[in-house]
Design goal:
The protein is mostly beta strands. The chain is built from one helix and seven strands; from the N terminus they run E-E-E-E-H-E-E-E.
Length: about 150
């Protein structure tokens, strides 16, 4: 059995790029930077090492999400890995990318020069994902006394 699920959170490395396939499907591409903390062998200090992850989202949600993302936006993503390979100018190329199933905006708006974020309008949706509806509350069964005198231990 194999499981292909990815969860990452980080900041967009560039403005998203929205395009359309010849069949009319919208495709949103963007990059996310996530840090890996490692100890520097010379100094003994912990340091952040960035990893840059290409992400792709398809369909009508891609167009909607594009309006709320920009370089620097912090997001949490759930999806699956997809490996692609091709040949360009006689050289073999490949990449591993995340196909986005769910995305949550952890910050909205443009990143300002001081490193903070300006807020988007309060009417901006927080998440574009299929969310399960809350189930009706379930009542616990009545308590049962497990220490019955008739049962020998």
């Amino acid at each position: 059995m194999s499981i292909n699920r990815v969860n990452i959170s980080g900041n967009l490395t560039r403005d998203p790029e929205l395009r359309m396939t010849s069949g009319g499907t919208q495709v949103l591409s963007f990059g996310v930077a996530v840090n890996d903390r490692r100890r520097n062998p010379q100094t003994g200090d912990w340091e952040d090492y960035p990893n840059f992850v290409d992400c792709t989202m398809f369909g009508t949600r891609a167009e909607a999400v594009n309006r709320f993302l920009s370089k620097g936006s912090k997001v949490a993503i759930e999806g699956k890995l997809r490996y692609s390979s091709w040949e360009r100018d006689g050289q073999r190329r490949s990449k591993l990318e995340v196909i986005v199933d769910e995305i949550e905006f952890m910050s909205r708006g443009q990143q300002s020069s001081d490193g903070g974020y300006s807020q988007a309008p309060a009417s901006a949706p927080r998440q574009y994902a299929s969310q399960p509806q809350p189930a009706a509350p379930v009542q616990a069964p009545p308590a049962v006394d497990v220490y019955d005198e008739d049962i020998p231990f």
